[in-house]
Structure formats: C-alpha cells, structure tokens
Specification:
The protein has about 240 residues and is α/β, with parallel strands linked by helices. The chain contains seven helices and nine strands; from the N terminus they run H-H-H-E-H-E-H-E-E-H-E-E-E-H-E-E. It starts with a helix and ends in a 6-residue tail after the last strand. The model has no long low-confidence stretch (mean pLDDT about 90).
Length: about 240
C-alpha cells in the first residue's frame, strides 16, 4: 500500500464533518440504520469484554476523531491518550471534546507505529489500524508497543480480518465510499503470530458480529475482536 495515499484518504475523511454523522467519519458506515446498529453492537461487545474500567488509563492507537476514546471515558476510564496521525481528524476530535466537556482525553498527533509513550497504559486499544498498515509499519508498531506496557497491561485489538488468506485492496474505487480505497486484511493466524513474535499471548478472540448480520458486508473479511496480554514484554 502507498502510505501517502492512505494518509490522504483519512485527511479527506475529515472534510466529511457536518455532512455525515460524527461517528461515520472514521468508521466508514454511512447508512444511518447500519450506523446505529454498528455502534450499538460494537459498544455492547467491547465493554462486555473490558468489564469495569473505572480508574484505568487507556492508550488509543489510531484514534481517529476520538469516537472510542469518548466512549471509554463515558464508561469510567480515568483518562485516554488518543494517538492519531491525521491532524485534521485530531482537530475534529479536540473540537468534539470541548463540545462534550470531556477533559480527560488527550490527543497526540503521531503515526501510531512511531509513537513513544511517556506513561504506561492499563489497556491499549487498537481499532481499525492494522488494515491500513503495511508489514513494515506493523512491525514498528509492535516494537514500540511494549514500551506502553506494565506487567498487567492488556491489548484489545478491533480490526478487519481476512477469512481465508490475506485480502489486499490497493487504490481501488469503492462504490460505498465513492473514492479510491486501500486496505490490507490479515488473517487471524497472521495477527496471532505477529503478536506472539513480540511476546503477547491471546486470551480471547471472536468475530464482532454474528453470521447473518447485515454488517458482515464482504465475503472475504470479518471485523474481529482480539484480547491479548503480555508475559515479559513490558519495560519496567
């Protein structure tokens, strides 16, 4: 994938502000009924996996406009560091935080794979990020990930997953989005191996939506949720 074109795609999504619902900007669901369903089902599943998050600090990598960061603090998180490389998306997120009177979400402008955390996170949340990374970027992210870990840190990954073999989309016109789109959908096995290579172990993984759900739009992929912890990878 062309990193520059992927970055341009996300910068251009920021220009959809006010012409689309806030949540649609980065989750790419523009149908109102599907958007409502997607937010409801995803929020229910993610927070059922997280359990009580009161007082926890989150690191949100690939935070977009902060849509998940806001949900996290609204559900009890002490604070969220939201890392996003598109300054245009960050500007929208900061504006939204002011409107919602949320003061414990801190936005940082940085590629997720290059971010150097200043503090350890209790939970690292990675949402819809790896599908827009080539292998070199993914390896850089994993190299830095342990720097944000203490001995009890968990990683919750929400990302598109190929069902049979890696599924690549390279600068293809999307009828749904009405623009060129690129993505790289890794298999479940590839995700598990990538995290294993850096000392993380899988605790649980599951498709986000049940089969037959209208949000499973494409035969090659499924949105999937993974929960990892780490053994001796944290930097103490």
């Amino acid at each position: 994938m062309d990193e520059t074109k992927v970055k341009s795609f996300w910068d251009n999504r920021a220009r959809k502000y006010k012409s689309l619902p806030f949540e649609s900007i980065v989750n790419l669901e523009e149908d109102p009924k599907n958007l409502e369903l997607k937010i409801s089902l995803e929020t229910e599943k993610v927070f059922s996996w997280l359990g009580d998050i009161s007082g926890l600090h989150f690191l949100d990598l690939g935070a977009g406009v902060g849509q998940w960061a806001f949900r996290l603090v609204e559900n009890g998180a002490k604070s969220v560091t939201a890392v996003e490389y598109s300054s245009d998306l960050v500007e929208l997120g900061r504006r939204e935080a002011v409107q919602r009177k949320i003061k414990n979400v801190k936005f940082e402008i940085s590629p997720a794979e290059d971010y150097q955390p200043l503090e350890k996170a209790d939970i690292i949340f990675i949402s819809g990020l790896f599908v827009y990374m080539n292998d070199q970027q993914a390896e850089r992210l994993m190299t830095n990930l342990s720097k944000a870990c203490h001995e009890k840190t968990k990683v919750l990954l929400r990302d598109g997953t190929a069902l049979e073999k890696r599924f690549e989309i390279n600068n293809r016109m999307s009828e749904h989005l009405r623009t060129e789109y690129s993505a790289s959908y890794r298999t479940k096995e590839e995700y598990l191996q990538l995290f294993k290579n850096y000392g993380f172990q899988i605790l649980r993984d599951e498709n986000m939506f049940n089969e037959g759900c209208p949000l499973n739009k494409y035969p090659e992929t499924r949105l999937r949720l993974y929960l990892f912890d780490q053994g001796n990878t944290c930097q103490k």
